[in-house]
Structure formats: structure tokens, C-alpha cells
Amino acid sequence: MSTTDELTLVDPLWWVTHQDALDEALAAAILEAHPAFLDEAAQHPLFAALVAAFQARADIDDRLTYTVEEAATLLGISRSFAYEAVARGEIPNLRMGRRILVPKAALERFLAAAGDQGPPARRDDDGPPSGSSDPE
To answer: Is the pTM of this model over 0.70?
Structure first.
């Protein structure tokens, strides 16, 4: 009797725009379904890269702080945008000498607070944000 392994992509467009997340999800699914593949990873450079990304992600989850680059990856923004946000004080951070670290707990609180504010107002193509009054 054979089994079929499935992976369902509920929102393909999201996965296309979040390639790193797709790579990690695929690596996790493969490792979970076929742990023996870990031994073969060195023979397949692409799979080895996926396994490395998955393991690096597991390592980062155990740490108390992130580098700005790691925080940028977790937030889905570019490295330069993350450094700009740190400089503006938008991303919580602490400095140790020349090194800038983003505390995991502070980043989680920051995201929770942003989530409590709700989604930003949508703009119509030819008017002010919906829900706002336009004085005439």
C-alpha cells in the first residue's frame, strides 16, 4: 500500500511573493515526511540549501535577539528598509557598541500593538481613504 504526500497552497499569490517562506515550508514538509532525506541532502545542493534555511530558522527561534538583517527577513522587508526603520525608531532595538540588536520580545510586542490597530484604511483610486469625510 502506498501513501500520497500532499501540500496544499491556499493562496498561491502569497507564496509567490514570499519565496523564503515557501522554501522553508517545503523543507519542513519534506523533512517531516521523509527524515531519511536529511542524509541525502549533501548530494543535492538545492535541497541542502532548503535544509540549511529550515535549520537556521529553527536556530533563530531559540534566540533572545535578532540582528537587523534577521528582523528584516522575519518582517518581510529589505535590509536597508529595516535599518532605516531602526534609525527612525520604528523597530525596537538596542545597541551594544557598534552592534544593533532587535530583542525578540520587543519585536513581538511591536507586532502585537500594530495588529491591534487594525488594517490601514483603503484608498479609492480617486478619493480619500474610505471611511473618512472629505471636507468640501
So the answer is: no
